[in-house]
UniProtKB/TrEMBL annotation:
Family note: Belongs to the SufE family.
Pfam families xref list: SufE
Native source species: Marinomonas foliarum
Gene3D superfamilies named among the record's database cross-references: 3.90.1010.10
Superkingdom: Bacteria
Annotated ranges, domain Fe-S metabolism associated: 12-131
Protein name: SufE family protein
Amino acid sequence: MTDLVNSKDIKQQLQACRSKEETFKTLVTLSKTLTRLTPEEKAEENKVKGCESAVWLIIEEKDGQRHFKADSDAKLMRGLLIAILSLVEGKTLAAIQKMDLKSELGELNLSSYLTSSRTNGVLAILEKIQATKQ
């Protein structure tokens, strides 16, 4: 599904950032690693409601593991998606539901980018990731 960089690598990259500008550059660099969705995959049923930017999330399950594809019309949001998906890619639904994804994201130095409207979008993404049904 996704060609995600190891979550430990992403965490280390983001935690190493010492300024808002450095974090922004890292997120933009990460955004370039996200495989873009096709126009067909950007269907309305894959759109995450509540996001300021257009965000699409596809969840597939194979052999009990969840795999994710995602895209956004905003570069920064694509970087945030990489960070989020790196935490959950290849895990089971039960394992994902046990995770405190908000806390895990908090450890990634992203608070300066989570404006109130963007936070609502991120929370909508996290809810969809942890939902029993897609």
